[in-house]
Design a protein that fits this description.
single chain, 280 residues, Rossmann fold, 7-stranded mixed β-sheet, two-stranded antiparallel sheet, 11 helices, binds S-adenosylmethionine
């Protein structure tokens, strides 16, 4: 495990070297070393919002082993984050289905509502979500990686309805939301973590609210993209294929307490699952 000091107060101005976690030793993000460079073009109000927006949970966040060992190259390495965080790359990775999937997720979300987005998404996803909710709504985004928090705070600096917090998706919170949205996180985490994340997110939906999950699903046997997806999963994404073997509902500890609506897309390669608490 790599222990990171909490950067929630000022990490928006972190530089690449402040956010470099190349080894397995304990790494800290120290606000006193940080530059103001990332605030270029950001107003004072926005700076204050970015710097003092966090209210959630513990004083430290721990990068889980699966993230450090499997996804360091894509989410923690500052050089790669720089070039991967682009809309065309997300679109290509999702076989140009990203807009359709994003719209399917957003169609579950009312303007002016409160939304928890669990884990950063590259490209313009969160900006579009903030626009969709509007200034009468509230978007809270959490991510476990300081570099992703830093990056996303910059992307969302112009949206007063959005705040970004450093937190693990399994960390409990007193807050509840109209919608909790989990976009392509589950396939990247081990199965025991999938259960913890889903159980925890279900605790954070308001009465009448919903959990919306968009992720991979087992494609039709004759899907032309199945062999390459299978190869990519076997090589780079060791926790993804369990979404081919299990429904998302099977990971929840108390699935019987909820209604589960399931829609598949693009020959079954992707799925949207909408979960709502059953009436008592
Ligand atoms: C949402 S997933 C993948 C999204 C999608 N593939 C994309 O295009 O960006 C990637 C993010 O999940 C975050 N993450 C991984 N495990 C997490 C956890 N337990 N809690 C919060 N964030 C987590 C990573 O730091 C990373 O920023």
């Amino acid at each position: 495990m790599v222990e990171l000091m909490d950067n929630r107060q000022t990490d928006c101005s972190a530089t690449d070297s402040d956010l470099s976690f190349a080894d397995n030793s304990a790494s800290s993000v120290n606000s006193s070393n940080l530059s103001e460079a990332c605030f270029d073009g950001v107003s004072t109000d926005q700076k204050n919002k970015i710097s003092h927006s966090d209210t959630r949970m513990s004083d430290s966040a721990v990068i889980p082993d699966y993230l450090q060992q499997t996804y360091y190259w894509s989410y923690l390495n500052p050089r790669n984050v720089n070039w991967l965080d682009r809309e065309p790359i997300v679109k290509a990775i999702l076989w140009w289905q990203h807009n359709k999937l994003r719209n399917a997720a957003f169609s579950e979300i009312e303007p002016a509502s409160s939304v928890l987005q669990v884990a950063a998404v590259y490209g313009d996803f969160s900006k579009n979500l903030a626009k969709h909710i509007g200034t009468d709504g509230k978007l809270t985004l959490i991510d476990i990686a300081p570099i992703q928090v830093h990056n996303t705070r910059i992307k969302l600096a112009a949206y007063p309805q959005a705040e970004v917090q450093l937190a693990d998706a399994v960390a409990s919170s007193d807050s509840q939301y109209d919608t909790v949205l989990c976009y392509f996180l589950l396939h990247e985490i081990p199965d025991d973590y999938k259960t913890k994340v889903i159980d925890n997110l279900l605790q954070q939906i308001k009465p009448g609210g919903k959990l919306v999950i968009v992720d991979y699903h087992k494609p039709h046997w004759a899907h032309p993209i199945k062999p390459i997806t299978s190869m990519v999963f076997d090589t780079l994404e060791p926790f993804a294929k369990s979404l081919w073997r299990h429904t998302i509902k099977e990971f929840a500890s108390h699935s019987e307490r909820y209604d589960w609506q399931h829609t598949t897309y693009f020959g079954g390669l992707y799925q949207k699952v909408v979960v709502q608490k059953k009436a008592d």
